[in-house]
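Notebook B, p. 112. Complex prediction, attempt 2.
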Amino acid sequence: MNLSTRMIVVLTAVGLLSGSFLAIVGQVTKERIIFNKRHEIEMAALKVVPGASSVKMIYEERDFAVFEDRDEAGNLLGYALQAAGTGFQDKIVLEIGVNAELTTILGLTIIEQKETPGLGAKITSEEDFLRYWQNRDCTKELTLRKPPVEDPGALASNEVNAITGATISSRAVLNIVNEAIKKARQLQTEGKLSGIN
Amino acid sequence: MNLLIIFISAVLINNFVFYYFLGLCPYLGVSRKIGPSISMGMAVTFVLSLTAVSSWMINHWILIPFGLDYLQIVSFILVIASLVQLVEMFIRKISPPLYQAMGIYLPLITTNCVIMGLALLAALKNYNFLETVVFGVSAGIGFTLAIVLMAAIREQLELADVPRPLRGAAIALITAGIISLAFMGFSGIIK
Amino acid sequence: MAQKTIRQEFFKGLWDENPVTRQLLGLCSVLAVSNAVINGIAMGLAVTFVLVFSALLVSLIRKIVPNQVRIASFIVIIASFVTIADRVLAAYFPQLSKAMGPYVPLIVVNCIILGRAEAFASKNKVGRAIIDALGMSAGYVLTLLLMGFIRELLGNRTFLGAQILGRWFEPWVVMLLPPGAFIMLGLIIAVSNLIDFKIKERQKQP
């Protein structure tokens, strides 16, 4: 076997063997990987609308998706909006729960963030940030309360607390949420969200 | 607007060297002088642009449509290796002076984390074609900025009395750390 | 060329030829995933897996592969094992996979792997190649864990997620960020050099 032939044979063999092996591994792991991705998103969508037991994606575009949240009886409880935007350091991906009329924010959870640990990363903290997002009035734009107040009752109905020392991260979350609600409202007027049934 | 954000991000805020830690391997060996660093930076930027284009095409025209995403790593690295080979041969033929200037760095670039890193990050961030290209070029500019900065400082360090244990890689890394700290000041530029 | 004993073949990877502190290879990954010990463990296992198995395969086929296609074949082999490690991680440890981002696929350009394949596995018998790979991996993992331990402790007060230092200690957040990684690694290399100089000095004195 001369050199050229040998080169081709060896390369082809290596290629085919790796290819087949990878195909097997790829298949075996494919289901779980898809499940993992979906699971994380669904968990977030369920979490932000209290009482929801099932979610269904009804709209998707880049950096924005809408889920229907229903309870066990099948009633529409509200929508979970998954939205992404630029944070202080990198991209922030979050899920915001709103009621079916798009008037009240039910909850917020952060899915992905790379903010500064100990400062901007506090946006994931229930205690410091997230709990102030419950029952916010979103018929008008949400605003930031600086300096933050301890008692949620002291906030105006469309205000949320900024985190001390992490204003930019807090504002980034705020902007993402305002944008998301705007988009959802747009979809509502276009009739793309299913009505209450 | 989005493209501008990607550009500023890749050059300053999420600089490939100071934030993603990519491109250190050749840097530590090659660039102790500013001149070669600029050449290396140019070579890398060139390869990055080509890689951005080809990795996007492979991902979106072959891998995803046929459900072959598990072949991403293998296909990317093979394409990068071949690309660098081709580029080297091409430059050698059409412009020997250019080859003298930056061609010698090309083989080093193949196993440079920067190139593979770009292909992977662009795929991870789900950029469209134009965004990927801008990302690639910006990453190259960011990389060039980084290694030229460090070469400039290292040129000065050659003259300084560095304690023995720190000489070489150690002081280079600490320098990189300080510059990285400075670059963190760029965060929050984009609102 | 004097043949090393099996023991020497393994232990050289830990100190004399430590891939990170001596050979300055694989730095990208060490800096990136050393912000928490658990990430370091996952990365360490992945690198060990890829290094050992590619060393094995490369050594097995070293006599059949023609010189010109050597690098290409090595790359395909290494890339395949990296893919396996990456897919398994994504499937069964999604949190870790996400935390490490693109750095597991980046093992494919980790200079340690190709470097060892080229410099050693392709020129030695399977047994030795595996021992060498294990030694290099051990050196890599140890350095990685050391960095991870220090960075996580000082930056987050924790070890493997469990709080160790009390509230009295104000965490050095910079340790969790890129600058901290660079400086820490620089210091570790400096200390390792220092220890090496002292050992060499002592050896000179009869």
